[in-house]
Amino acid sequence: MAAAFDALQFGIFDQNDRGPYPLSEQYENRLRLIEFYDRAGFRTYHMSEHHSTPLNLTPSPSVFLAAVAQRTRRLRLGALVYVLPAHHPLRLAEEVCMLDHLSHGRIEIGIGRGASPHELHYFGVDPDLAQAMYVEAYTVIMQALTRDEVNFSGKHYTFEKVPIDLKPRQLPHPPLWYAVPVPEGAAWPAQHRINVVCGGPLPRVREITDRYRAEWAAAGNAAERLPLLGINRFVIAADSDREAMALGRRAWPKFYLSFMKLWKLHGTQPRYARIPEDFDTVVQGGGAVAGSPGTLREQVYNMMEQAGANYFIGQFSFGDLAQDEVLHSAGIFARELLPMAAAAQAAGGVGP
After folding, report:
1. pLDDT tens digits, 65-124
2. Which stretch of 94-98, 138-142, 201-205 has the lowest confidence by average pLDDT?
3. Which CATH number is 8-119+175-347's, of 3.20.20.100, 3.40.1160.10, 3.20.20.30, 1.10.10.10?
4. At what angle do helices 323-347 and 23-40 cross, to 10 degrees?
5. Given 104, 132, 229, 340, which is the most exposed site by the fewest CB atoms within 10 A?
6. Are 332 and 293 in contact (CB under 8 A)?
7. Cα–Cα distances in Å, from 318 out to 18, 181, 201, 212, 257?
8. What global pTM score does this model have?
9. How far apart are the first and last CA of the chain?
């Protein structure tokens, strides 16, 4: 089995949803937790962007990542994703450049149109136009990161001879990420050498990773240079299976309420990211791994094989989990699974 995981790496995903602490304390606790992720050897800290919802109390990724950059040394950092229709593309390109230098070249850029039409509507963005705005904004941002002048004429953005003085530290630009919910969505990132992350059921994730590999090969790329194909799952590790499941059952209802608040307010349902109301169903469906060290190793190994992924992104903090509970859980995970990533790096079997 070990050979199948020669290039496997591990990262963190964080919604920073409303927890059991006052907001200032939550921020400081989260920064201390990220310091642990940095020391432990996780590859990247990925954070979401959401607005007007308790699902995310750090709605400005750039502001929070600037703080994270000063509290860490090797951990890579990035939004997963920046909701492009909610940002001015030139301003966002400038923020990315600043962050890349402040972090000494550790920034990664997740891009997307946004999963919630309600959040876009609050920002005055027509959700039906979000995809077209996203495509135009992406083009503008890539010009701003890689050229000395931006010239673009589109339906939503127009720029003529805009001088660009800021450039990122990582040239030609920091690594890119894209969230892929369906197999046909894997073609574009594979053709453009962009890392991807997937949620949802394992069979669908496998369809996505298989499609990505096929598109990657069809473009004439070498298999050993395959970008990161990530799978995102909730994680609770504890000293026993019973304890891990009890923690999940306690924490999940609060997270579920935060996740669903805007959807229920508007009487709608998420198109792709639907989640069960109870934690047992989440685990049974493969949306979370929970258990003792031995159970955790087995679940992660099996999940990665079934998914065809080479990058596992764990969401350790959610709901009403206390700081010490999350630290204990992440510590078990780091001890049991991160040595695989260290061995892969030593052997040179690491993606971009």
Report:
1. 999 999 999 999 999 999 999 999 999 999 999 999 999 999 999 999 999 999 999 999
2. 201-205
3. 3.20.20.30
4. 30
5. 104
6. yes
7. 8, 22, 20, 30, 11
8. 0.94
9. 23
